[in-house]
Amino acid sequence: MNKFINGLMRLRRGPWELVATIFIVFGVFMLMQPFVMWAFTYSFIVTLVGTVMFIIVSHFPE
Amino acid sequence: MSDKTINRVAKATPRRLARKVRGLSDRAITWIFVGPTIFLLLAINIFPLIWTINLSFTNFKANRINRAVDYIGLRNYERILTDGDIWLSMQATAHFLFWTIFFQVLIGFTLAWLINRKFKGNDIWTTIIVLPMMLSPAVVGNFWTFLYQPQIGLFNYVVAFFTGADPSSFEMLGSVDLAPWSIVIVDTWMWTPFVMLICLAGLRSIPDYIYEAAEVDRASKLRQFFTITIPMVMPFLMLAVLFRGIENFKMFDLVVQLTGGGPGSTTELASINLKREAFEKWRTGYSSAFAIILFVTVFGLASIYVKALNKVKER
């Protein structure tokens, strides 16, 4: 856990990509889930933030 | 010494003549070759994408070109993301996507594994299995419509034969519960061979000596399967899932031919809904925003997937 937080603080690719991936997966789940409407409403912004974050952080050093 | 002579000759050559002899630089040649491709890429992919993003912030209607176009900010996105019909179409897409990929990977890999065992008539079976993939989706949709007919369709009779139910007691395309499964069955029938071919390529790329070494170490067949076959086929399998996932996310022709999105809107996938908004209701700005939402979703998922694929390959 410490390694993960250190990686985030030092702007390392691995942990930041993990954060972006969680955003994207969560966003897509929110888009397609059949349970609550509000999750569908906010799904796009979550996916968009994740996708843009993924593009940016994939240029961070390893 | 000879190098110096070359330099002296080069210096002595008049500039105009030297330019003629030298011709184009490497950089110029590179641009001549790459330029047309970049131009086409910009014209066919990048420009329409930027234009669609631009349209998604307007109330533009393609059937009323002369009407003034107003920028309405994020209102299209707001409407889409609070629209119950769009939400339902996304759920239908999720159902279709999940089950088609699940069945195609399961059956495709099993078929590849069986075909990979050398037996008599192996090639003939491969050709027969691959046939559905070569047909046009419109043709497949059309003849499966006949197969699903409750009165004369073969599908109902086969199901009736195994279950003992009356063939005309259920209607695959007309029932709200069965219609989503009917499109899953047809897509699985059509595209399982594609997954099978990719898996077969993966299975055939595993060298025999790895299995021989495992035999020497007295590894059981099951252990060989889980520690050699599955890990080595995994990149191929992931590639197949990526291709099928992207393709099925924008599935249109087959479903339109089979159910047309019905009954009601139970099989109205996102792409069918998008087409209705764009070319039946002519809400171009709205449908552009919808297209951007789908694009971001597929792009995000594909980014993660390509990353995972590279990691698996590195292993």
Automatic annotation (TrEMBL), chain A:
It comes from the Bacteria. The chain crosses the membrane at residues 16-36, 42-60. Keywords: Membrane, Transmembrane, Transmembrane helix. This is Uncharacterized protein.
UniProtKB/TrEMBL annotation, chain B:
It comes from the Bacteria. The lineage of its organism: Bacteria, Pseudomonadati, Pseudomonadota, Alphaproteobacteria, Rhodobacterales. Keywords: Membrane, Transmembrane, Transmembrane helix, Transport. This is Carbohydrate ABC transporter permease. CDD domains: TM_PBP2. Its main location: membrane. The chain crosses the membrane at residues 28-51, 96-115, 127-147, 178-203, 224-246, 286-306. It is a multi-pass membrane protein. The keyword Transmembrane helix applies. Belongs to the binding-protein-dependent transport system permease family. Residues 90-305 form the ABC transmembrane type-1 domain. It comes from Pseudohalocynthiibacter aestuariivivens. Pfam families: BPD_transp_1. It is found in: Cell membrane.
